[in-house]
Amino acid sequence: MAVDLTQDGELAVLTLNRPEALNALSFQILRDIGEAFDKVAHMDVRALLITGAGDKAFCAGADIKELRNRPLMDQKTGAELGQSVFAKLDRLPVASVALVGGYAFGGGSELAMACTFRLAAPNAVFGLPEVKLGLIPGYGGTQRLPRLVGQGRALEIIKTGRNVRAEEAERIGLVNAVVEGDLMQAGREIAGKFTRYSLPVLDFARRAVTRAGDTTLEAGLEIEADLSTLAYRLTDAEEGMAAFEEKRKAEFKDG
Ligand code: HXC
């Protein structure tokens, strides 16, 4: 299998496992990733880590050899497939963390950008080099990159197709952190910072924050007020505030 899904305690771990092609995304692999996300939604886990096999790449993007041999109509289907698979991450009940070591180009960068968090090894190299192929990003890059780094920088990165190394990626907000050492361990640690909180509450926070990039302040504040009220009504809020008063750790029940 070119996509492995395993469980490590309270974490699901998805590994792109096609190192001989730098984990490039064939249409079949994209479909397998989609199926894996559907499975994660039903697993008893509290976060999803996504990694690439081998030490050279997280993912070198869409499989160019396969793309080249597709009729034009299929290219549209390809973009729709990639977009719909990566959009599933937004609907997962748990947060996702991309662990990027080596190359994350094209669809590989786009997969990382669709995750809730991104950690990079010092050798990580991001890029949306589609213009070099006579293409533009098709798996969400033109929409998610500007939301992460701003429109000016996104346009420059997409129009030049240049590489963005780990240090710059961190500086411009494309990744949350660059970590030395074991990336998987760093993934476990960042997940450990939120896995004990209430899943629905974390999801309300994500939904409110992600709307900040695409709505007016007034509408966004209304969304915040609605979600904040929903959170307040959960027993987890009762438990969290009671635990504060009783000077103990809250025991959330995800409801
Ligand atoms: C298919 C790929 C691939 C890809 C690498 N390989 N990237 N195969 N699709 N995206 C294959 C190579 O052909 C080669 O196999 C093997 O992986 C190792 O790659 P090398 O090129 O020999 O490695 P290296 O010299 O170290 O260069 C690494 C690299 C380079 C800089 C990452 O491979 C590269 O530029 N890859 C393409 C990156 C890219 O343009 N991605 C965006 C794709 S478009 P063989 O069998 O030849 O030895 C996209 C969105 C499209 O993602 C949207 C459409 C709707």
Automatic annotation (TrEMBL):
InterPro entries: ClpP/crotonase-like_dom_sf, Enoyl-CoA_hydra/iso, Enoyl-CoA_hydra_C. SUPFAM superfamilies: ClpP/crotonase (SSF52096). The keyword Zinc does not apply. Keywords: Lyase. It is an enzyme of class 4 (lyase). GO terms for biological process: fatty acid beta-oxidation. Its EC number is 4.2.1.17. It comes from the Bacteria. One of its GO terms (molecular function) is enoyl-CoA hydratase activity. Transmembrane segments: none annotated. Belongs to the enoyl-CoA hydratase/isomerase family. This is Putative enoyl-CoA hydratase echA8. It comes from Tropicibacter naphthalenivorans. The gene is echA8_6.
